[in-house]
Amino acid sequence: MNYLSRKLMFSVLLVCSIFSFAQTVTEQFLVKGNCNMCKERIEKTAIKAGAQTANWTAENQTLTMTLDESKVKCDDILKQIAEVGHDNEKYKAPEDAYKNLPACCLYTKSSDFEKPNNTLEHHSDSDKKTNQIEGVKLTREKEATAISKKEAGLIFNISSKELLKAACCNLSESFETNATVDVSFSNAVTGTKQLKMLGLDQKYTLLTKEQLPEIRGLASAYGLNFIPGKWIGGIQLTKGGSTVVNGYESITGQINTELLKTKDDDKKSETEINLFSDNNGRVEANVTSTSPISDKWTQSVLLHGNGTFGDTDMNDDGFLDRPKGSQLNVAYLLNYNDLENSGFASHFGINYLKDERTAGQIGFNKRITQEDQSLYGVGIDISRFQLWNKTGYVFKGKPYQSLGWMNQLTYHQQDSFFGLRNYFGKETSYYSNLIFESIIGNTNNKYKVGASFLYDKYDEDYLLDNYKRTETVPGLFAEYTLTGEKFTLVTGARVDFHNLAGTQFTPRMNFKYDLTPKTIFRISAGRGFRTANIFAESQAYFASNRQIQIINNGGEIYGLKPEIAWNYGVSLQQEFKLFGRKSTVLADFFRTDFQNQVVTDLDESARKILFYNLEGKSFANSFQTQWDFQPVKNLEFRIAYKYYDVALDYLSGLKKVPFMAKHRGFANLAYSTNKTEKGRFWSFDMTLNLVGKQRLPNTKSNPAEFQLADYSPSYATLNAQISRNFSEKIRVYLGGENLTGYQQKVAILDAGNPFGNYFDGGVVYAPIMKQNFYVGVDFKF
Hints:
- It is a multi-pass membrane protein.
- Helix content is 7%, strand content 52%.
- By secondary structure, the chain is mainly beta.
């Protein structure tokens, strides 16, 4: 073959290959569906209709497919998908085809295909040969906080977008713009924040990280500071009884935190540096890096450091309003995902934390023993190490059947003193949970069965007393999910064999009924039990001269019996259009009844803290109504009202629980400008909290000058933040907390005589700091 012939043949082949390549396109379309059965049906139909590849995801309701346009048209494929029962943006499914779908596949139909937060925009991509391929790119504006419409339980999904509305330096500050969780200071000396939900203290909410036990045991008092806000990829908040799969300790609900990971659908390396500082001497630095290692392996490196160096005393009582000190926090996450081929996925994590804090009177020197100086001081040194793994397997050809195994080892040590009181604690904890999930007949009938094991070893020293115990809790559980055309029922039970608390039976139920596609009714009921860690959970009162007294009731844990409670809830969720825009109203009522409770009594004497088991009744009624609305583009408005009725039988009779406002109001306003092509935009956020009067502990036995009123005054706080994105890579934000400047007038009783009988820093009902201003910057690479 001569040179001319070879050149001619090469040219013909090149033209043919370019023409052939130009006919192959990648397209994305919105297709409605619910579950794995829908995924299999949609993809199979697309391939059968002529698509070369097809992939449908339930989360985005998106079908991505490649096809040769010279052989088949997109319209033909979408038409056949509609004929098997699935609405899409081109064709609606015939009614008989839709009704013939299995019940689990019956998605919500509407008069026209809904795309409330979706836009389709055409774009061009270039390959190495610079050939242009026309495609469709799907972009979806993710809600900052979304109420799940599919789950039987009342679940709020809080995204990283919500966390950007406030400073969010750690988990305790992640709920400042959320109406469901109440955030408050626990005492006036350590400046620690605590959460409350459904009118009850944080200890009654199951707090998990990656669905593994996190803030419990000795970490109860300060654990919210152990998860930096910049590490958080998302939060799932469940009100009321949660699933039995995650354990028996949930009474008022569950808050699960997910750490940052590389997204499966966009495996790109991303590193972010965050720098933060406020006007009261607090500085912080975060480095988060997520990156793929290979097609199946990804990793996350999370670094956090903070320090508080200023002497802040806004109420001029001679005590620091918040402690000085530093924290170093390091985590490494390694993820393996080969679900499509082998069916295996695994997640490994390791975390080390060192936190040192000093509080008390200004001028106190931690290096000098308390006996050798006249100033009152508090020192809290915490070391914490965690190692965990979660491994899952999806059975080949059975996407509905899986096996998962979770394991976590935790070591926690706290060395602390509060004036002349010492408290030392060590906890070694191991948790394991094995879960098998499958169906009965079809995906309308799903079930989970499994076994768990919890090991907790405690060693505590308080003053001259030592308290040691080991808890071992093997458990079995089963959960069944029934899905109908308009309802979902999740019912489950677990039995746990506690070596100290005896055998415990924990049933739970969640039921959802769609009255209409936009009106959802839910009910829930369940039981929970827990063992109280009275010293770790009551450190808010250690900065006082109250004497601790335990009234033994014959139990195996501090002489006390475990806490047992029932929780019942009902809610109504209504979506509607107002001025052509989405609007949601949610109303819920929950009641918690304690069968047994460890009572922390501050009323019997102003100089004592009594711990004893409940004799009588203890209940908490919680009502909340919330309205989310977007009156105009880019403007989000959320208002809420909460009513609490919480009381229990103390030794002195039935009383309202202290530090719980009967009435609370909430309003959040968020606005952002349109994003430019270069990623520039402004964001404005404002949150108002109205807190009604709260009952205060009885201090009548104190001299008149150290007595408090029966109730606190009502007050309001206002937080605001302005941020500017200069590009997709750089963001600067400026904010202020407690802009109303409200401050509790007397945060510490007898602050001038901290070693006297009447000193008490644990009666805190309002902010102890006035306005606090901060500035931060984010860099992404």
